[in-house]
Write a structure and sequence with these properties.
Layout (H helix, E strand, L loop, with lengths): L1 H18 L17 E3 L1 E2 L11 H13 L10 E4 L11 H14 L5 E5 L5 H13 L4 E5 L10 H14 L4 E5 L1 H4 L5 H7 L5 E6 L4 H10 L6 E4 L5 H9 L3 E3 L3 H6 L11 H5 L2 H9 L5 H11 L8
Parallel strand pairs: 1-9, 2-3, 3-4, 4-5, 5-6, 6-7, 7-8, 8-9
Helix pairs in contact: 1-5, 2-3, 4-5, 5-7, 8-9
Length: 307
């Protein structure tokens, strides 16, 4: 079932993707939201039998709710079912249940970006609609990648266009080549930035030149670029990301410690001239970023998994 749906998207090509926009961006038109700011990801804890540990998840969410996040102007919200949330290991019902519980536990004034990407366009649309129904404010859609060799700009534009057309909530593109082996091409990002229901991209590739190019080429659109890791945040600021934002695991520690990373409208550390302090703090982390994240979460008594 999956194969024909993917191949159908591939065969349609760029002309079909562009022509489909003429009919008028159905569900999401006029639903633009400001996604600038910082988004710590919510991890998914597991039991010893590899089941989602909802009890530990709720404990984590309670602890997150008591962190001094609310006074941090740059904290826009949270990401659930991203890479840190280990969504590939969850069933569809588990993915929705996790989003439901996160929405119930976190402050209503914080945006919830929920990862809804699947390999087929139809499955992604269905997951996106379902996540909107359980409280997601925006859908973060990772690139389909199984048929890697066929995932060119035309196929990806068609895929994201159909998802955005039918999504009742804004869509955020998600490019994470370390996990998918696929970078969302810049020309595809520029084309998709013109869709009224696509509000931005989380770029986790770490190519600062690429990030700067995307910022430059989409500057006339209502489109925001989020750096996907702390490792290249400073460099991203240097190429124009100053007023936009970031998503990364280490923000949980940095923000909980009271550090103001960046103002939602472009101030924070950069404007105060203390951005080097942030850079030194991040550079002082152990070599393994994942080990660092785990250590930081343990420091704040957050449960990740118990395997």
């Amino acid at each position: 079932m999956l194969g024909p749906r993917v191949w159908s998207s591939v065969r349609q090509g760029l002309s079909r993707a562009l022509s489909s926009t003429v009919g008028g961006w159905a569900s999401g038109e006029g639903r633009k939201v400001d996604i600038s700011g910082v988004y710590p990801p919510v991890t998914t804890p597991f039991t010893a039998t590899a089941e989602v540990d909802y009890g530990k998840l709720e404990e984590n969410l309670h602890k997150l709710g008591t962190f001094p996040f609310r006074g941090v102007a740059s904290l826009a919200g949270f990401v659930v079912q991203g890479s840190n949330g280990e969504f590939p290991f969850l069933t569809s019902s588990e993915r929705l249940e996790v989003v439901t519980r996160v929405r119930q536990a976190l402050p209503r004034d914080k945006l919830l970006l929920a990862g809804s990407g699947c390999e087929s366009t139809q499955a992604t649309v269905e997951m996106t609609v379902s996540m909107a129904q359980v409280g997601a404010d925006a859908a973060m859609v990772v690139t389909p990648c199984y048929y890697h060799g066929r995932m060119n700009s035309a196929a990806l534009i068609h895929h994201y266009t159909k998802v955005a057309d039918l999504s009742p909530i804004p869509v955020v593109l998600y490019s994470v080549p370390a996990n998918t082996g696929l970078d969302l091409p810049v020309d595809a990002v520029v084309t998709l930035s013109q869709h009224p229901n696509i509000v931005g991209i989380k770029d986790s590739g770490g190519d600062v030149t690429r990030i700067g190019l995307i910022v430059h080429k989409t500057r006339r659109q209502d489109f925001q670029v989020l750096a996907g890791s702390a490792g290249f945040l400073l460099a991203s600021y240097a190429v124009g990301l100053m007023s936009q934002g970031a998503i990364g695991g280490s923000w949980r520690c940095q923000l909980a410690g009271g550090t103001l990373l960046c103002g939602r409208r472009g101030g924070g550390l950069c404007r105060e001239g203390t951005v080097l302090e942030l850079a030194f703090r991040l550079c002082s982390l152990p070599l393994s970023l994942w080990e660092s994240i785990l250590n930081m979460l343990e420091m704040f008594s957050l449960e990740i998994y118990t395997l």
